[in-house]
């Protein structure tokens, strides 16, 4: 006898449950959590280094660094006096909520205002996994080409803020800010975009202000 | 490639469900995959075959339903497909909407014998 049994189970529900628990933990302690998404080499770690230099004396910052191998990113961030913990995913292409939960005991959660989670460099897989963050920040650099929003729409849809990095290199590329902007606008008209260069310190003030004001909102929530 | 970890998650669900029916064997699995879930259907189907084999679920048929992105307009409440309307409501033109379908992966049902 054959029988069909209804299940209707969301495959990611386990991750979502753990992420919801993380969100409660962060809310209790008023920690503002940012999930940073990008391709490899877009400048996530440099962005965090600059942020640590600028805001390290004003806000208590911490970072979780996701990579397949090495602790190089965590070492770079820790070099700026910020508590940083590395997660090595081995062959894994993304961080999930369980991995974040596992490293939380290494932090003093009562001594953090802003937690940056630097995801594995990848514009596809990390979009599927909620990490309990307040905001997802998408970092794209001009050297990757202006077709990335059209090619990776899930990344644009997930983002709450878009940072366009390496603007100082734009004259050496055929990157069109207008084409890029139009493709973003088609997908998510209200998405705020900041043009920056981490190495040349262009446009970073607006990013620092955004972090400060979002952290302030979280503390007053 | 995160399809393998998703496939393993699906097989865990199947094992839990099959434990409730110890005398039955699994014949078919129906899945819905959102076109904007970030999950590649062909890759997931391949990963699932491997994961099912490892748990000794042999000869299981996969029935995969692709779910397009659907959104509900916040202004006029219309349900529409944002991809084909340039991410605007195709009724009132508003760009303010909530995604209602097309971003998740679900195990809909299993068929046992």
Name its key features.
heterodimer; A: 221 residues; alpha/beta; Rossmann fold; seven-stranded parallel beta sheet; 8 helices; 8 strands; 22% strand; B: 113 residues; alpha+beta; hypothetical protein PF0899 fold; three-stranded mixed beta sheet; three-stranded antiparallel beta sheet; elongated
Characterize the quaternary organization of these chains: heterodimer
Query: What name does the CATH topology of chain A carry?
Result: Rossmann fold
Shape descriptor of chain B reads elongated
Tell me, briefly, the overall form of chain A: globular
Mean pLDDT of chain A: 95
Q: State the CATH topology of chain B.
A: hypothetical protein PF0899 fold
Overall average residue pLDDT of chain B: 92
Runs of chain B in which pLDDT lies below 50 for 5 or more consecutive residues are none
Q: In DSSP terms, counting alpha (H) and pi (I) runs of 4 or more, how many helices of chain B?
A: 2
Q: What integer value in Å does the Rg of chain A equal?
A: 18 Å
Strand order of the largest sheet of chain A: 4-3-5-2-6-7-8
Structural class of chain B: alpha+beta
State the low-pLDDT regions of chain A, or none: none
| Overall number of domains of chain B | 1
Helical fraction of chain B equals 25-40%
Share of helical residues of chain A: 25-40%
Structural class of chain A: alpha/beta
**What is the helix tally of chain A?**
8
Gap between N and C termini of chain A: 57 Å
What would you give as the CATH superfamily of chain A?
A: P-loop containing nucleotide triphosphate hydrolases
Helix-strand topology string of chain A: EHEHEHEHEEHHEHEH
Describe the model.
The complex is a heterodimer of chains A (221) and B (113). The termini of chain A are far apart. In chain A, helix 1 runs parallel beside helix 4. Chain A is of the alpha/beta class and 221 residues long. Helix content of chain A is 36%, strand content 22%. Chain A is built from 8 helices and 8 strands; from the N terminus they run E-H-E-H-E-H-E-H-E-E-H-H-E-H-E-H. In chain A, strand 3, helix 3 and strand 4 form a beta-alpha-beta unit. Chain A has a single domain, classed as Rossmann fold (3-Layer(aba) Sandwich), CATH 3.40.50. Chain B has 113 residues and is an alpha+beta fold. Chain B has a single domain, classed as hypothetical protein PF0899 fold, CATH 3.30.2320.80. In chain B, strand 3 and strand 4 form a beta hairpin. The two termini of chain B are 33 Å apart. The relative contact order of chain B is 0.25. The chains are: A alpha/beta (221), B alpha+beta (113).
């Amino acid at each position: 006898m054959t029988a069909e049994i209804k299940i209707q189970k969301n495959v990611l529900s386990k991750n979502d449950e753990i992420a919801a628990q993380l969100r409660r933990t962060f809310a209790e302690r008023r920690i503002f959590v940012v999930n940073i998404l990008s391709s490899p080499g877009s400048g996530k770690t440099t962005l965090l280094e600059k942020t640590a230099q600028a805001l390290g004396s004003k806000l208590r910052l911490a970072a979780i660094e996701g990579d397949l191998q090495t602790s190089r990113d965590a070492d770079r961030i820790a070099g700026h006096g910020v508590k940083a913990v590395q997660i090595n995913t081995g062959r894994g292409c993304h961080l999930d909520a369980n991995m974040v939960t596992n490293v939380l005991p290494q932090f003093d959660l009562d001594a953090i205002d802003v937690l940056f989670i630097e995801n594995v460099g990848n514009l596809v897989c990390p979009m599927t996994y909620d990490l309990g963050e307040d905001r997802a920040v998408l970092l794209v650099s001009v050297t990757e080409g202006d077709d990335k929003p059209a090619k990776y729409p899930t990344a644009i849809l997930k983002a709450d803020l878009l940072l366009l990095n390496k603007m100082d290199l734009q004259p050496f590329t055929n990157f069109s800010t207008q084409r890029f902007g139009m493709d973003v606008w088609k997908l998510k008209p209200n998405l705020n975009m900041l043009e920056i260069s981490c190495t040349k310190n262009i446009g970073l003030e607006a990013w620092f202000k955004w972090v400060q004001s979002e952290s302030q909102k979280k503390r007053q929530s | 490639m995160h399809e393998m970890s998703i496939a393993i998650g699906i097989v865990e669900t199947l094992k839990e469900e099959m434990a409730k029916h110890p005398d039955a064997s699994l014949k078919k699995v129906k899945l819905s995959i959102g076109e904007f879930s970030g999950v590649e259907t062909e890759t997931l189907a391949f990963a699932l075959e491997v994961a099912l084999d490892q748990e000794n679920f042999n000869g299981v048929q996969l029935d995969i339903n692709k779910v397009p992105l659907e959104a509900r307009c916040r202004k006029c409440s219309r349900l529409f497909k944002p991809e084909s309307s340039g991410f605007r409501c195709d009724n009132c033109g508003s760009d303010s909407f909530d995604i209602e379908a097309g971003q998740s992966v679900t195990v809909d049902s299993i068929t046992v014998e």
